[in-house]
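Example record

One chain of 435 residues, shown exactly as stored in the release files.
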Amino acid sequence: MAAQALALLREVSRLEAPLEELRALHSVLQAVPLSELREQVAEMHLGPLFSLLNQNRREQTALCVSILERLLQAMEPVHMARNLQVDLQRGLTHPDDSVKILTLSQVGRIIENSDAITEILNNSELLKQIIYCIGGENLSVAKAAIRSLSRASLTQAGLEALFESNLLDDLKSVMKTNDIVRYRVYELIVEISSVSPESLNYCTTSGLVTQLLRELTGEDVLVRATCVEMVTSLAYTHHGRQYLAQEGVIDQISNIIVGADSDPFSSFYLPGFVKFFGNLASMDSPQQICERYPVFVEKVFEMTESQDPTMIGIAVDTIGILGSSVEGKQVLQKTGTRFERLLMRIGHQAQNASTELKIRCLDAISSLLYLPPEQQTDDLLRMAESWFSSLSRNPLELFRGISNQPFPELHCAALKVFTILVSWTTGIMSDSFPC
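Predicted structure tokens for this chain:
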């Protein structure tokens, strides 16, 4: 079968419009195992297939893309890097997005290969074209370009190629295309920054991290909402949190939350800012975060009283995150009767809200009530039982009613709560269901 494919490929190379031959080659290749193709693909001259991509014939282009995808999949990345760079470079500027996606997927394979990546890093023109793919209209092309550059930056040579050459100017030039493209570049910068302190240092030296943080704390509320998601991603890493704290960014976000009450447009960015602190608390000490930034806890409690389901959902999620650790549970317990009233509101929403919000409430309740066996001390169990009792006048009936509803997601979420109750050693189930 591989020999038949080789013969068809030779036939294709001799014709100007080999549509029938391409169809036949496409069919044959689907039947040839990749292992068999790998033995022959190095001998195949793929130049004619790449040339046919330039004839602006839709079916021909689609067939060539599919054929090349199959053949290149069987080709060793090192061979591809050394013999097809010119064709790959042309593919990145092709007007058809499917060709760009094919090219970027193969570039990604080369970058992931330690023996082949140098070939790419030494080709600044190819890297430049990858950067400009970020600025295209097609999101899939942009995402693939971001992935390739992010992977390349996992190496010291990749960091130097991107940040210590004219490519940095190209990256900044692409950012000027429009707001959407600027955010894509920020996404790339955050991905690279999250890898290591050294990677973050390259990104901060470039000035792009500083630009992102300036937009985060700027006056444009929509920009704030977008940027805070990226900054939250950076905060998932220890070195990222350290950097944000040193630069005073966390304090600035706290101050913006303080001023949110007087901002009629705060609903655009407030959920993201609260989410940021929720994740911060889950990764560091909940007690320290809540004590240092009391406005965060205050705002979460306020949001549970909102009439806006979006605000309620974010608040419920954040309570679940806070209450997932023993330290976080103790922080919430210190708020006393105020937290009991909040639990009652969560119980009400779990019964009466939309299905999506009900599930989020049930997930939060599970996080609050769950105690690993080694942490089931008398004090913590009593606290968890009192929280359970605060959810409703008859909490067991509440969850039994939810579990009987004909929605699998609700049924599973309620069952998770029952499983947690069974794991307790306080006898709450036997007391509630006497024999």
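Notes: Residues 58-73 form the longest helix (16 residues).
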